[in-house]
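Lecture 7 notes: from sequence to structure.
We start with the chain below.
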Amino acid sequence: NPMSIGAEARVYVAGLSAPNGWARRTTIDGSGRTVTDTNATGQQTLYEWQATKDLLLSSTAVATDGSQLESTTIYDAFDRPVETYGPAAPGLFGADRKPITTGTAT
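Predicted structure tokens for the same chain:
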């Protein structure tokens, strides 16, 4: 298998003097799924996958100032996406990837 955990690809664009020397950088996991995607300005998106299936659980956009916004997907028993949430601050989601609710509606 030519893929390895943490394998990296970089995109270079002629005439572009990106601060890191590349326009886009991605890393993949052992299954070939993107786990990080970074643009030339340093903005990054992190991807969390279900361990044994090709299901994207969440993606987190990280700005150059460190602020983050997360989006999540919930799947049914047949692996179909049935709910999506976000973007919102990562701390606003529970372990089930659903928004945390506080208080009660009146």
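Points to note: The chain is about 0% helix and 40% strand. Residues 92 and 103 are 14 Å apart (CA to CA).
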